[in-house]
From TrEMBL:
PANTHER family given in the database record: LACTONASE DRP35, LIPOPROTEIN-RELATED
Cofactor(s) needed for function: Zn(2+)
Lineage top rank: taxon: Bacteria
Protein name stated in the entry: SMP-30/gluconolactonase/LRE family protein
Organism ancestry: Bacteria, Bacillati, Actinomycetota, Actinomycetes, Kitasatosporales
SUPFAM superfamilies: Calcium-dependent phosphotriesterase
InterPro entries noted in UniProt: 6-blade_b-propeller_TolB-like, SGL, SMP-30, SMP-30/CGR1_Lactonase
């Protein structure tokens, strides 16, 4: 039987879990907060950014980046806790973010507003390079969501929620994405946040199907962890990266005033046999 324990509860729309140092960092989109929590459940707010979405990534030099989607900016958290602009993305509407080991930062966006009920228009992935430049490196992703980078910094994997796929791209030396391919067709799976393990399998969180699923390249399902509410994102963390942390909440709908039921956001923990690798 799968052992699922609750690390933290009473939150809103919780997303973007990232293990760093000895703590799990995640975003509460409802509250506009980035929160850090230790294995004992002790938590603190480390940043406040009124943005929805509100995703984060750690640069290889241990600086935390935060997407201020509403402003169209990437923010960097300073040692004193203040936030400064890292990159101006030019326009609002950004979603997930991931950084590779070279300091390249990938940020994706849908090209429509699902919360306003707009018709679907495929989105894209942009590269925010260390020199501050921003350029599009992938397009025609129906709804780009979670992203992960393999341990060798050679491959970027992107969840396309609306096409029920995981896409893969080779990462060139300058950060350009090459050799686009479907890494896995997921059938009825709806991938949101993702992470990679040491056997190059991908865990994806699935909101409507209330689960996290481990899949091999090609789509073979290796393990499924059911939860009692929508699973928004997951990451492998802990001292040996052998705990799957899941951010979950009771989903009410994209166009609802409150997309998740208030106070139902939780951080869950599940022991796994294969530890994490790569980023996040």
């Amino acid at each position: 039987m799968t052992q699922v324990s609750t690390l933290l509860t009473g939150r809103g729309l919780v997303e973007s879990p990232r293990w760093h140092g000895e703590r799990l960092y995640f975003s509460d989109w409802t509250a506009g907060e980035v929160v850090a929590v230790d294995r004992a459940g002790r938590s603190e707010v480390v940043a406040r950014v009124p943005s929805l979405p509100l995703c984060t990534a750690w640069l290889p030099d241990d600086r935390l980046l935060i997407v201020s989607s509403a402003e169209g900016r990437l923010l960097r958290r300073q040692p004193d806790g203040s936030l400064v602009e890292y990159v101006d993305l030019g326009i609002p509407g950004w979603n997930d973010i991931i950084a590779d080991g070279r300091g390249n930062t990938y940020v994706n966006r849908a090209d429509f507003d699902p919360m306003a009920g707009e018709d679907v228009k495929p989105g894209s992935v942009h590269l925010a390079a260390p020199d501050g430049s921003v350029r599009e490196v992938a397009d025609d992703i129906a709804f780009p969501n979670g992203m992960a980078v393999t341990a060798d910094d050679a491959t970027l994997i992107v969840a396309d929620s609306y096409r029920h796929q995981l896409l893969a791209f080779d990462i060139d030396a300058d950060g350009t994405l090459l050799r686009r391919r479907v890494w896995a067709d997921l059938g009825e799976g709806v991938p949101d946040g993702i992470c990679i393990d040491a056997e190059n399998a991908v865990w994806y969180a699935d909101v409507p199907n209330r689960r996290c699923v481990r899949v091999a390249e090609g789509g073979t399902v290796l393990r499924t962890v059911p939860v009692d509410r929508g699973a928004f994102a997951c990451v492998l963390g802990g001292p040996d990266r052998s705990t799957l942390f899941v951010t979950a909440a009771r989903w009410q709908g994209m166009t609802e005033t409150e997309m998740v039921a208030p106070g139902t956001g939780q951080v869950l923990a599940v022991p796994v046999e294969v530890p994490g690798a790569g980023r996040p």
